Amino acid sequence: MHTGRVSPFLNCSGSGKRIDKRRRRGYRREMEPMATAGKGLSSHTLVASLFRQLDWAMVELEPGVWRGPFCIESEEEFDLYAMATDDRLFLAVTPVIDGKQVAEPLRLYRALLALNQQLPSIRFALDGEGDVTLLADLSIERLAAAELERVIDLLVAATSRFVEPLRRTAADPTYFSSLLA
Length: 181
Hints:
Layout: H1 43-53, E1 59-62, E2 65-71, E3 77-84, E4 88-97, H2 105-118, E5 123-126, E6 132-139, H3 145-171
Antiparallel strand pairs: 1-2, 2-3, 3-4, 4-6, 5-6
Helix pairs in contact: 2-3
């Protein structure tokens, strides 16, 4: 997926994680070796340690559930949610689009389905209230810092790249974006 131009550090008003995109320009930091859930760590402990290792400011809302804000280039703030079960880590950016503001739902749903075919490892979905969310899930058994970082980068980049064209598609029946075709 072509993610477009993402600024090197995305951060709103001092909250959230400063997302370092330098590795896209050839920089690659070394990840510390991490234990896995299968080697004595609970999924909760593993995920919490991975968020610390990645320097992602996540607040634990309850055991196994976290929330961390991030900003896209437009300085709009979104929340990344994470929930760890015994065997999966579920990630969600929600809401990407408020379902109450959708005037053209069929156009939006078609665009979401088309995007889902193009996006690796992540997908758009609707929650119970009709809000558009961006989702990913990872196996706890094989979870490592590099994989978690890659998927979080995809979620942030897709949010930044697609939020405005999706909102316009949902609101304006004459709007067309080649990003969503």
